[in-house]
Write a structure and sequence with these properties.
Elements: H1 2-15, H2 21-28, H3 31-35, H4 42-56, H5 65-85, H6 93-96, E1 103-110, E2 113-120, H7 121-128
Antiparallel strand pairs: 1-2
Region (Disordered): 60-103
Biased composition (Basic residues): 67-82
Length: 129
C-alpha cells in the first residue's frame, strides 16, 4: 500500500495536477504505518513528507545546517583578517603605497580547508638576502 501511494504521489507531481484534499489526507494517513504512531504536530508531518519526497527523488538533499554555519564562519574569518591587514576591496595595489606595513595572504588548499597564512613581506625579503 505504501509503494502504491508513493507511486500515486509521484505521478501527481509529474502531471502537476492537484487532486482533491481527500487524496492528500489519504497520503498523510501513511504516517501511522511508517512511524508506528499518529503524528499530531504539523512540523513532524512535514518532515515525514520531505523524507518520502527524497526517497522518491522529487526533492534534492540539502546541506546540513552545521555545514552551512561552518562556511559562514570561514567567510567571516577571512573578512576580519583582510580588515586587520588593511586591504581595501581586496586590492594589493593600494597596500603597496604603505611600505612600512606590507603583508601578503597566501591561500593554501589542503583537502577542503583553506588555511590563511599571514606573512610580512619584510621578513620574506630579509630571509632572501
Amino acid at each position: 500500500m505504501v509503494k502504491e501511494c508513493i507511486q500515486e504521489k509521484k505521478n501527481l507531481f509529474e502531471r502537476k495536477k492537484a487532486k482533491p484534499r481527500k487524496e492528500k489526507g489519504k497520503f498523510f494517513g501513511l504516517e501511522k504505518e511508517l512511524t508506528g504512531k499518529k503524528l499530531n504536530n504539523s512540523n513532524e508531518k512535514k518532515k515525514l513528507w520531505g523524507e518520502i519526497k527524497r526517497k522518491i527523488g522529487l526533492k534534492k538533499e540539502t546541506e546540513k545546517p552545521k555545514e552551512r554555519k561552518n562556511k559562514k564562519k570561514i567567510r567571516k574569518k577571512k573578512k576580519r583578517i583582510k580588515k586587520e591587514i588593511g586591504f581595501k576591496n581586496n586590492s594589493v595595489q593600494k597596500d603597496r603605497k604603505k611600505n612600512s606595513k606590507k603583508k601578503l595572504i597566501i591561500m593554501s588548499k589542503k583537502k577542503d580547508q583553506k588555511k590563511i597564512i599571514l606573512i610580512s613581506l619584510k621578513r620574506l625579503f630579509n630571509k632572501k638576502k
